Automatic annotation (TrEMBL):
Pfam families: AAA_3, AAA_lid_2. Gene3D superfamilies: Magnesium chelatase subunit I, C-Terminal domain, P-loop containing nucleotide triphosphate hydrolases. Signal peptide: none annotated. This is Magnesium chelatase. It comes from Rhizobium leguminosarum. GO terms for molecular function: ATP binding; ATP hydrolysis activity. The keyword tRNA processing does not apply.
Length: 318
């Protein structure tokens, strides 16, 4: 596979996902970038904005195993990871694997579970393995978490701690679609049966584990000039000295942006990164990794606004 074939594959995958998810092209691109960059995605938006449908559609476009966990207040870490159960017939412990043992994991409404259950994913997301009773179990190189959360309801929810948020490559904010898109969605559904589900969308699984590995090998060969790397570092370091930010982004954040830039370049059929790639990815990669100062919150500033102000101040390479 060369860069041209890879670009055509991504275009075809976009088209397959678009059969079910309409009006979210930018969000779809960022999810695909996260998958090929080896990262994870946190999707935030009000109910009914196709967050779960997006995850299911992405999994349908990939020939990979998919599982879903509905996070609830009574969910325990063992419900996520699994547990060793004693078999009285064999007098041995037997591992009953939890839903985390998959390729694509949908952590639906992750902020509804208490912190001890949320933290069950920390090792899995960072190391792609889980340790149960002293034994390490690999989750494989394709393991990807797409978590959703509802920002409206606060009762019965538990905000994700910074350490957990830093495991996500992107935080994607899903808003309501445009008027024309909503009309198109309703027009499409008007011709379908009331019990129609995702299987009727006809999404073809185009990305196999082998294709994912080939794509990542191409991405590893993408060159980032020192000027691009310096630009990324300068932007990340600027978050640590900005008066509107109490805690800035980490070195892991800078590395995550660089990885995403290489993927975006490959998606465009380029073997080099551009400042435009950095500017397109900085906000979704950092909006969840910074903590605003109390004065900025009182003034009503948002992380997106603060990050865009930093991009306006830091000179881009030419």
């Amino acid at each position: 596979m060369d860069l041209g074939e890879f670009r055509n594959l991504i275009a075809a995958v976009r088209g397959e996902i678009g059969k079910a998810v309409q009006g979210q092209d930018a969000i779809i691109d960022l999810v695909l970038i996260s998958i090929f960059a080896g990262g994870h995605c946190l999707v935030e938006g009000p109910p009914g904005t196709a967050k779960t449908l997006l995850a299911r559609s992405v999994s349908a476009a990939m020939a990979l195993q998919y599982r879903r966990i509905q996070f609830t207040p009574d969910l325990m870490p063992g419900d996520v990871l699994g547990v060793n159960l004693f078999n009285f017939q064999t007098n041995q412990f037997h591992l009953t694997k939890g839903p985390v043992f998959t390729d694509i994991l949908l952590a639906d409404e992750i902020n509804r579970a208490p912190p001890k259950t949320q933290s069950a994913l920390l090792q899995a997301m960072n190391e792609r393995m889980v340790t149960l009773d002293g034994t390490d179990y690999s989750l494989g190189p394709d393991f990807f978490v797409l978590a959703t959360q509802n920002p409206i309801e606060q009762q019965g929810t538990y905000p994700l701690p910074e350490a957990q948020l830093d495991r996500f490559l992107f935080k994607l904010v899903v808003d309501f679609p445009s008027r024309d898109t909503e009309i198109a969605i309703l027009s499409k559904h008007a011709t379908q049966a009331l019990k129609s589900d995702l299987r009727n969308a006809g999404i073809r699984p185009l990305v196999t584990s082998a294709a994912l590995a080939e794509g990542r090998a191409l991405i590893d060969a993408i060159h980032l000039d020192n000027t691009i790397l310096t630009y990324i570092v300068d932007l990340v370091r600027a978050t640590r000295s900005d008066p509107d930010i109490l805690y800035g982004a980490s070195t892991r954040a800078a590395d995550a942006v660089a990885s995403a830039v290489r993927v975006r370049a490959a998606f465009e059929g380029r073997d080099y990164g551009l400042p435009d790639d950095v500017q397109a990815l900085l906000v979704p990669a950092l909006r969840h990794r910074i903590v605003l100062s109390p004065s900025a919150e009182i003034d009503g500033r948002t992380p997106d606004e603060v990050l865009r102000n930093i991009m306006n101040r830091v000179d881009a390479p030419r």
